[in-house]
Amino acid sequence: DCIDNGFSSVMIDGSALPYDENVAVTKKVVEYAHAHDVTVEAELGVLGGVEDDVAAEESKYTKPEEVVDFTSKTGCDSLAISIGTSHGRCKFTPEQCTRTPDGVLVPPPLAFDVLEAIEKELPGFPIVLHGSSSVPMEYVRIIEQFGGKIPDSVGIPEEQLRKAAKSAVCKINIDSDGRLAMTAAIRRFFAENPEKFDPREYLGPARDELKKMYMHKNIDVLGSAGHALD
Question: Does 229 reside within a domain?
Answer without folding.
Answer: no
